[in-house]
Amino acid sequence: MRFRLKTDDSYETSTLIASSGDFTEGELVYAAATDDGTTMRLYKNGVKVGALDKNGDIVGLGEGIWIGGNPNVATSHPWDGLISDVRVYQQA
Fold first, then answer.
1. Distance (Å, rounded) from C-alpha 41 to C-alpha 28?
2. How would you write 9-58 as a 3-class SS string?
3. Residue 90, Cβ neighbours under 10 Å: how many?
4. DSSP assignment, residue 70?
5. What percent of the chain has a predicted confidence (pLDDT) above 70?
6. 3-class DSSP state for residue 72?
7. Left (φ > 0), alpha (ψ -120 to 50) or beta: where does 57 sit?
């Protein structure tokens, strides 16, 4: 799993790549990405599989939220699977 985020601290995009928790074909997975203003986190089935320090408020939402591809290039690293439910919350 991978989670990319841009904040007003540096205006640079940071990428968190999970250190474990690869997907297996045919496996149903609950994946979550969180940011609390100091740390980005990735979870697979409720277990933390990665964390990265990242300070600041989220910026760059003009590009929207992309799930399963890279912004502005939907064919770059496209997700080849099914996504059954997506939710975005203002708090973890």
1. 20
2. CCCCEEEEECCCCCCCCCCCCCEEEEECCCEEEEEECCEEEEEEECCCCE
3. 4
4. B
5. 84
6. coil
7. beta
**pLDDT tens, residue by residue, 47-67:** 999 999 988 887 766 666 777
Assessment of whether the complete model's pTM goes beyond 0.90: no
What tokens does 81 get? Answer: 């699977």
User: Where is mean pLDDT largest: 48-52, 65-69, 80-84, 86-90?
Assistant: 48-52
- The answer to whether the CB of 64 falls within 8 A of the CB of 72 is no
Nearest to residue 58, comparing CAs of 9, 20, 21, 1?
9
Which of 56-78 are b and which e, b meaning 16 or more Cβ less than 10 Å from the residue's Cβ? eeeeeeeeeeeeeeeeeeeeeee
Give 39's contacts (C-beta < 8 A, 6+ positions apart). 51, 52, 53, 54
